[in-house]
Amino acid sequence: MNLDTFIMNGYGLYVWSSYAFTLFNFFILYKVTSNQFIKEKAKFAQKYKSLNSDQVILAQKQPTNRTFVKTVAHKI
Fold first, then answer.
1. Which of 1, 6, 20, 28 is the residue whose CA sits 20 to 30 A from 35?
2. CB 52 within 8 A of CB 72
3. pTM, two decimal places
4. Rg of the chain over all Cα atoms, to the nearest angstrom
5. Domain boundaries in the chain?
6. What is the pLDDT of residues 38-76, one digit of tens each?
């Protein structure tokens, strides 16, 4: 393996640290977003359990709710 590829004429330290910093931030952003999605899904599930049958049918017709309804409906 050619070490000059990683050194990049002396700029390798800056380039590779930038990549590492970016990947680290993407990972943190993914974790925060994932945790927030799980919390919102749990809140929706709690709210969905208290709906009557007419409200459930209406909720299933709304495009925003379809993803949640599919995952929550079998738990009720």
1. 20
2. no
3. 0.60
4. 23
5. 3-75
6. 998 888 878 777 777 787 778 778 777 666 666 665 555
CB atoms within 10 A of CB 59: 19
Residue 6 near residue 12, CB atoms below 8 Å: yes
Contacts of 49 (CB under 8 A, 6+ apart): 76
Q: If DSSP states are collapsed to H, E and C, what string results for the chain?
A: CCHHHHHHHHCHHHHHHHHHHHHHHHHHHHHHHHHHHHHHHHHHHHHHHCCCHHHHHHHHHCHHHHHHHHHHHHHC
Query: Higher confidence at residue 20 or residue 3?
Result: 20
Distances from the Cα of 41 to the Cα of 15, 45, 46, 69, angstroms: 39, 6, 9, 10
Query: Residue 60: how many CB atoms within 10 A of its CB?
Result: 12
